[in-house]
Amino acid sequence: MRRILFAGATGLVGREILRVLLADDTVDRVHVLARRPGPGAHPKLVWQVVDFAALPALPAMDEVYLALGTTIKAAGSQTAFRAVDLDANLAVARAALRAGARRLGLVSAMGADSRSRVFYNRVKGELEAAVAALGFDGVVIARPALLLGDRDALGQAKRPGERIGALLAGLLRPIIPADYRPIQACAVARALLAQVPRARGNSVMRSGAM
Question: Which of 71, 121, 125, 133 could form an SS bridge with 111, CB 3.0 to 4.6 Å?
């Protein structure tokens, strides 16, 4: 029976990861770390409110999933964005390793590159490189393109740019490379969850393969 540590359960992909994990008969417990209280009405679910800059010792775990993320607009600055997308995710990964986790799944983004001139892509790339170097038995990194899903259900603000992007992608789908077509959040979650439990070494799943 697998014991899962999870951070980022309230986002588009995170919500789908949590739903599938709770329905999985091979999962004994899902320990969610979050900045705010969340739902706890499930026998497998433990919801723990934490300060990601000062994480407590955690119970024994087998796997960890990282889906924490924000936008520069929502965060308010590049420094605040980096504190969530890089620092908080990396802190959870390190805490999971200390708790015995041997495999890690990370939700990143297409374009992630630690040498990119684009700040967003550079931070995503730095996180990928950092978690890959920690020493897990297996690391699976998912790089989705534009994410599609029900943001209203999450109480997230509508993003006009994403709606326009999805519309244009639908019209131009035949000529857009598979890796850059919009992808449903549930498809990303399913692909990551299928790979992590049997992962060996470090691997990257590009959007077109999910």
Answer: 121
Please give the residue range of the domain that contains residue 124.
2-209
> 166 vs 73, 115, 123, 200, CA distance in Å?
20, 28, 24, 34
**Could you report the per-residue pLDDT of 4-22, keeping only the tens digit for each?**
999 999 999 999 999 999 9
Total number of domains in the chain: 1
The string of DSSP codes covering 143-182 is: E-SSEES-SGGGTPPP-HHHHHHHHHHHHSGGGS-GGGS-
What CATH number does residue 139 fall under? 3.40.50.720
Among candidate residues 117, 149, 121, the one with its CA nearest the CA of residue 13:
149
Query: How many whole angstroms separate alpha carbon 50 and alpha carbon 36?
Result: 8
pLDDT tens digits, one per residue of 158-206: 555 566 555 655 655 677 788 888 899 999 999 999 999 999 999 999 9
Euclidean distance between CA atoms 123 and 96, whole angstroms: 21
Question: Are the C-beta atoms of 14 and 154 separated by less than 8 Å?
Answer: no
